[in-house]
Amino acid sequence: MRERLEELKAEALEKVEKAYSPSDLQDVKVAYLGKKGPITEVLRGMGKLSQEERPIIGELANTVREAITEAIETKKNTLEAIELERKLQEEAIDVTLPGRPVSVGGPHLLTKIVEEIEDLFIGMGFEIREGPEVETDYYNFEALNLPKGHPARDMQDSFYITEDLLLRTHTSPVQARTMEEYKGSRPVKMICPGKVYRRDTDDATHSHQFTQIEGLYVDKNVRMSDLKGVLNHFAKQLFGEDREIRLRPSFFPFTEPSVEMDISCKVCGGDGCSVCKGTGWIEILGGGMVHPNVLEMAGYDPKVYNGFAFGMGPERIAMLKYGVDDIRHFYTNDVRFLSQYHNA
Ligand code: 2U9
C-alpha cells in the first residue's frame, strides 16, 4: 500500500509538472484527490490493515494528499503569473504612438450669421423674440394688413394645415403678437429670427424653408430717418465701414411708405460687375414705416404711435458676405462646405 501511495504521488506530481492551464490542474485534482480518486480508494481499504500499519499508512496518505495539493497550488500560482505577464505584454499601450485625429465640429454658418445679426441689434437696444412656426391665418395675414382675398396671400404660396392654420410665411406674426402683448401702452423694439415656409420650388436662390430676421421699432415720433440710421449702422458693421447703402421706394402691405435697401458692391466698388448685375448695388433687405392699419389692429393708436419695420433673409446675407453661390448648401449640411466657415 505504501508503494501504491508513493506511485500515485509520483504520477500526480508529474502531471502537475506537465499541466499547461488551470483546467489541466483541475483535472489532476479531481483525478487524484476526488472522492472517487485512487487515494480515497487506498484509504477505504485501510480496514484490512493491521493495527500497527493503519496509522502509518493513514499518515502517509495524508502526506501524499498534502504534497499533491501543495504542488497544484504552487503550479496554479505559476500559471496565473505567466498568464498575467502574457496579458500585460499583449495589452501594452505604446504611449509614444501618434494619437488618432479627433474631428471637432463648429457652429453652422447660418447660426453664426444669425447670432452676429442678433448681437448687432442687441447693441442698439433691440430685444429678441420668438414665436410659433404653425400660425393662425389671423396673425400670419389678417393682422398684417393682408385681409382675405389679398393677392399676396395666395393659397398656392403657403403650406396650409387646416383652413385656419398654416406654416408661417414670415416672422411678422411674432411682431403682431408682441405688440398685442404690450397692449399699446409701451414702445416695442424687437427682432425676431426664425424659420419660415413658402411653397416654392427649391433652386440656387429659393427654398421652401428658409430663415428670416425681422425687426420692429414702435414708439412715439419714430421717423424714416431712424430706420435709415439703424440699417446703415447694421450694414456697415456687418459688411464693412467702406460700404454705402441706398434706399429705393418699394411696396409691402404692412409698411407705408416701403423701401428696399441696397448695399454698394464690394467686388467692383460700385462700377458694375456680374455680382451686382452691372448696377453697382446689391439688394439686402426691405422695410418701411409700419402701416397705420397694422398698428391699430395690434392695439396701438396710430395717431400717438408710429414705427418702422424691416425684414431680411440671413441666408442671402451670408451668401453675399461669404460668396456662397447656392442656398441649398445651408441645408444639405455637407461637412466639406460647413467646415470652411468654422473660423470665419
Ligand atoms: C409688423 C409690421 C411690419 C416686416 C417687413 C420686409 C419689409 C421685407 C423680406 C425681405 C427678404 C423678407 O427675407 S425676406 O423674404 N421682408 O422686405 N419685411 S417690412 O414688416 C413688418 C413686420 C411686422 C407688425
Automatic annotation (TrEMBL):
Sample GO molecular function, one term: catalytic activity, acting on a protein
Cofactor list: Mg(2+)
SUPFAM superfamilies: Class II aaRS and biotin synthetases, tRNA-binding arm
Reactions catalysed, as given in the entry: tRNA(Phe) + L-phenylalanine + ATP = L-phenylalanyl-tRNA(Phe) + AMP + diphosphate + H(+)
Main location: cytoplasm
Enzyme Commission number(s) from the entry: 6.1.1.20
Binding sites annotated in the UniProt record for Mg(2+): E256
NCBIfam families, per the entry: pheS (TIGR00468)
Family: Belongs to the class-II aminoacyl-tRNA synthetase family. Phe-tRNA synthetase alpha subunit type 1 subfamily.
Protein name listed in UniProt: Phenylalanine--tRNA ligase alpha subunit
Gene name, Swiss-Prot/TrEMBL: pheS
